[in-house]
Amino acid sequence: xxxxxxxxxxxxxxxxxxxxxxxxxxxxxxxxxxxxxxxxxxxxxxxxxxxxxxxxxxxxxxxxxxxxxxxxxxxxxxxxxxxxxxxxxxxxxxxxxxxxxxxxxxxxxxxxxxxxxxxxxxxxxxxxxxxxxxxxxxxxxxxxxxxxxxxxxxxxxxxxxxxxxxxxxxxxxxxxxxxxxxxxxxxxxxxxxxxxxxxxxxxxxxxxxxxxxxxxxxxxxxxxxxxxxxxxxxxxxxxxxxxxxxxxxxxxxxxxxxxxxxxxxxxxxxxxxxxxxxxxxxxxxxxxxxxxxxxxxxxxxxxxxxxxxxxxxxxxxxxxxxxxxxxxxxxxxxxxxxxxxxxxxxxxxxxxxxxxxxxxxxxxxxxxxxxxxxxxxxxxxxxxxxxxxxxxxxxxxxx
Length: 399
What we know:
Elements: H1 2-9, E1 14-18, E2 31-32, H2 34-43, H3 46-52, E3 54-56, E4 58-63, E5 67-73, E6 86-88, H4 91-103, E7 108-112, E8 114-122, E9 125-132, E10 137-142, E11 145-147, H5 154-159, E12 163-177, H6 181-184, E13 191-195, E14 201-205, E15 210-216, H7 222-226, H8 228-238, E16 247-260, E17 264-265, E18 268-270, E19 276-277, H9 285-305, H10 310-341, H11 345-360, H12 362-372, H13 375-381
Pfam families: FAD_binding_3 (PF01494)
GO molecular function, one term: FAD binding
Protein name: 3-(3-hydroxy-phenyl)propionate hydroxylase
């Protein structure tokens, strides 16, 4: 949706192909970081997002036994970005906002209920084979194909691109409740990473609910893990609540750390989970996917205007976005996850001491928050900068 909306800004005709019959409403990612909000503000959708979302400037790193370990404040970045916080808003709301806009945007064709079954490349463009819900098929051709079709990407498979990395042995379970966990656990922040050698936790608030993430052992049956009784018992283990915990959403999924061997083959490109997938610890998967989309769209915009070399632009997209995926997204989410699930007591204490030291030093905390907000990767690599051009130094921004 972001890629289509951004390409439309350059008056580039777009056909958006989606297998589902309509925009999905299931709860997925829910965090938008400062660097992403800057891009979405440029797209003209940030104001509506803020009207519906929840601003969270502070988050906690906690230990399930010891309590608060370190508090981090995105407000330290107030002179660098107009958005010194995480905006909590479930992903489907941004999709809805963009869908409403794209339906009324000239040059954008939305093809819902159609599945891409094959991709082919030629010297002057690329094509996809489509199958509609009624079984009819057709072929579409264009100048470029962008595969934003998730971890199981048909486009990536059609290109024969490797998706190297690993899968965590445990599955992650996300459950949401209408109970206000800040009442059950006084003193917690609205975003909390909670370390524990047996069952770490990730607790965060969204406008609709409080959400918890915890690991599910490989041997536990999926039906048992998702059962109402199990989830209510899990929440009671997080914080006793005599009235019980209503469960309003649940998802169980496998978590991977993987990166595609290349983000482009000819005039076919991969973005988002089709190009890289990671642990949710840090809330950067959705954000980095949006950065991929904008980076690529800006490059194709320059090519369409006739002043840029397509090979150089697509090579720069591949090089820079893949570097961000490996050096930031993969590295940081893996480190965050391992810190939460560490079982060795000595290493746990060392990790906690390091987090306290970072939070206690304003300059180190500032650098830490700059990286967590993705501002560091954007300042270093830019988003869609012309090949060979270095990012401009960061400047203060009013807020």
